[in-house]
Amino acid sequence: MISRRDIADIMSEWKKECGITHMILFRYDYYSHILTVCTDRPGCLIGRMGSTIGKYTDRFRSLDSRFDKISLIETDGIV
């Protein structure tokens, strides 16, 4: 099972790699094993041809084999 601290550490590393300095909201559903990320710059988190999001999906799967997917929601600067 993925702890909230593990998620926060990985999200911090992901933000730093993408060069995002503003706040990102995230929520992990322990029942469906889906991580929902709310940001106004989802393209930066996805990366070229999905390489960055694929890398971090694999990182979460290494912590919990039941991890399903990362869902991105664009917020248009509401955050």
Written description of the protein model:
By secondary structure, the protein is of the alpha+beta class. Helices cover about 40% and strands about 20% of the residues. It is built from three helices and three strands. Strands 1-2-3 form a three-stranded mixed beta sheet, with no helix packed on it.
In short:
By secondary structure, this protein is α+β, with helices and mostly antiparallel strands. It has three helices and three strands. The longest helix has 15 residues, at 4-18.
Reading the helices and strands in chain order gives: HEEHHE
- In percent terms, what proportion of residues is strand? 15-25%
Low-confidence stretches: none
**Main sheet: strand order:** 1-2-3
Major sheet description:
3 strands, mixed
Number of strands: 3
Rounded to the nearest angstrom, the radius of gyration is 12 Å
- Large-scale geometry: globular
The proportion of residues forming helix, as a percent range, comes to 40-55%
Total count of helical runs of at least 4 residues:
3
Distance between the first and last residues' Cα: 28 Å
Provide the structure class.
Answer: alpha+beta
Mean pLDDT: 90
